[in-house]
Each structure stands twice: as structure tokens, then as C-alpha cells.
Amino acid sequence: MHFTSAQRLDDGVLEREFTLGEIPGTLWTPESAAPAPLILMAHNNGLPRAAARLVARARHTAAYGYAVAAVDAPGCGDRPRSAADEQVRADLRRAMQAGEPVDDIFESFIGPLVERAVPEWRATLDALLALPEIGGPVGYSGWTAVGIRLAAVEPRIAAAGFFAGGYVPRAQREEARQVTIPLLFLLQWDDEGNPRQRALDLFDAFGSKEKTLHANMGGHTGTPWFEVEDGGRFFGRHLK
Amino acid sequence: MHFTSAQRLDDGVLEREFTLGEIPGTLWTPESAAPAPLILMAHNNGLPRAAARLVARARHTAAYGYAVAAVDAPGCGDRPRSAADEQVRADLRRAMQAGEPVDDIFESFIGPLVERAVPEWRATLDALLALPEIGGPVGYSGWTAVGIRLAAVEPRIAAAGFFAGGYVPRAQREEARQVTIPLLFLLQWDDEGNPRQRALDLFDAFGSKEKTLHANMGGHTGTPWFEVEDGGRFFGRHLK
């Protein structure tokens, strides 16, 4: 893991860019001297780690006293795209503009992306936990499909907050029953393009004994800011 | 409003029994000198105001800095029951033990109870707001059916937390669209005897632009304690 830049933010949080082999990432750490618990943060559908909403959430969470890390998935964010990556994105755009069903395209796009992203997240986790400023336990926040696979295969993940607004491949819908850690599942009630019933079925499917659904009004990007604070308290119950 | 007893609790909360005409009630007020915002608290289906879970919630909420009031509905708690009250309760017990449908019995029991309870809550609210130790604004917590009617007809109610686990008469399911105040709707995912889909449909029906659903695992009485604290923060956003 190589740090390529660093800046100290107003609230004392240190924001550093890093690379781990081909993987570009960002690490936010709080000002405190003690090793901080870690939260891995990702956007649904492989949206860039530099997206404003993720950065705002990461900075706020770090200011609470967590180390927060985000990486770009293969073909996403700062990473080069293959011809196949470009093709599936073009197919998706075309189908969406035409109002055609997009489930099959999402399946062929997000399914393989999860398969490629999860081993990278595990390698990143190894590298992060080797840093002296980061302690356990580890939480996960955001991209549901990657989080399901990670929670199913990675015993170091102790609690997770998932955002329902993203495509969850068939394989991860099956794997949801294998997830047994405490969960906070965040749903936008009228999320355009993400059917509500599918999200409720997924919440029902998770194997966790302790799982909480928070649903709020509005569309995909309308999550109220107080949910960031609720997420902080959820992690506070399980990671501290 | 006549106070009939008073005790100071360990955390400084003053717990007083009162009567207002035929209505028996309890008022919890915080230690602070300034007039406190008020939360009206009721159990679904007219359960007694003296029930341990309501008392625990009321005391905790008062310790946060709220005045909290609960009254017994007609024929409930400390109040005398008519022969008709006794009959409908006996019918309900018999049907439940026999595993028969209970919707029609609940409708004939809870429907009239809401009609009788809401004017009493409004009279109680008048009397409470005349006390120097209580200021506005006013919140409501608990019994969904009474809360829907109150929120629809009583402009002094500024925000409400409803617990989904109780029978909501047809009239209040219709009135839900007239509720426009901020809502926190609390659902136990596997509440025995309170169908999940009916609760989700009710959440969908509320007219409020700002409404949040919190769903947790387990049966009717399994609500985790952190939801009391989440409720406190919800009221903190809207009543302070």
C-alpha cells in the first residue's frame, strides 16, 4: 500500500490517496492517536469513490472517530475500462433511454463486477489492518451486493449498513441468507429503478438475527442526512 | 385537572397521577425549570397506562427533557368496564383461543374506542398546556389508531411516533392520508397477529412528506431498546 497524497481537513481528519497494486483508494483517519475501528465504504453499482456523496459520508464518519476506506472497483472510478466494460455501459444507457427492461444487463454487468471487486476489498482490508493507526473491529457501509458477498466470506466484517438502492445480482440474493452479522438496511421508499418489493424481500432474506430497516420518503438520492448519524450510532453499538 | 399523588424518581423526573373528570392519567415531568415540550403517550388497543413497558418508556423520555402524559381510555386500565366492554373482550379471547379471525371483533372494539378516546385526549391536552411547567410543541407516541385521528384533527400535534403493532380500524386507515406531520413508524417484522403487509400499506398511505419506517426483527414485544433513543432523537428534531 503506497500513499500518494495527503491533506488534513478542517475537522482534523487526514484524507490520503493510496494505491494497492492496481487498486486506487482513499483512506480517511480521525485525529485521535488510538487505533481507530475501520469502516469500508462503497457505492452501489461501482460508482466512483470520489463521488461527492460518498466523500461527504466518509469525512463525517471519520470525524466520528472511525478510519474509513474506499476503493474503486475494476473498470470504475479512476480505473481503466475494457472494451467489454464500455460495451455493457453503452447497452445499459441505451436500454434505460428506451425504457426497456434492464435486469439482464445489470446482471451481466454487476454480477461479474462483484466477483472481481470482493477479492480486492479483502486484499485492501489486509493492507489496512497492517497500519498502526487502524484497529479492529471492521464495519462495512454502502454497496449491498459487494457487502453481502464480503459479509458471507469475510469473518473480519462485524457489522454492515447496506443501501438498498442498487442492483443485487441473483447470486447475492441467494447469499443473503448466509449473512448473519448485525445489519442496518437503508431504503428509499420511491427509489426510481429499484423496486421496493425486491428490497423488502432482500431485507427479509438476510440471515441476521439483528437487522433493522430504515425507510424514508423520496427517490434514490433523497436519503435524509440524519441517516448518516443513525448509521454512526449503529456502528457505535457494534464496533466500539 | 387534579393531582392525586406525586413521587420524585432517581433521575429527578417527577411522576404524578392525576384525574381530569372521569379520566385517570399520569404525568412525568423533567427536573428542568424551563417549560418542557410535551409528548402524549398511549399503548395500542387501549392497554393500561400503568403497563411496565409504557412506564419505562415514559420515564426515559421525561429524563431526556420532555413532559410525558398518558391516560387510560374508556373501559381500559383503571376505568370501569361496561357489560358491552366485558362482552367484546370475552369474544376476542374466545376467538383468539379458537384461532378464528378476529378482525371484525377488533373493528367493533377498537373503532368505537378511538371515537371515545380522542376527545378525551384533546381535553387532556387543553389541561396539560395550561400547566406552567409544560410548553409546546406537542408530540404523540404509541397507539397508531388514536394517533392517526389526533394528528388528523388536532393541529397542536407537531410530530408523531406510531407503533405498528395494533389494530387500526378501517376509518383510521382511510384517515391516514390526512396525516401530514413528520412521522416515525415502528414495525416489528414478525409481529404475531399484526400482518406485516397491512403495516407497510399503512406506512405508504400516510400523507406526510417526512416519514420514516424503522423495522426490527422479532415479535410484538421485541422492539430493541435503542428505538426509544431513536425516538428521542426524532422528537428532538421536531419538538425542540
Automatic annotation (TrEMBL), chains A, B:
InterPro entries: AB_hydrolase_fold. This is Alpha/beta hydrolase. The lineage of its organism: Bacteria, Bacillati, Actinomycetota, Actinomycetes, Kitasatosporales.
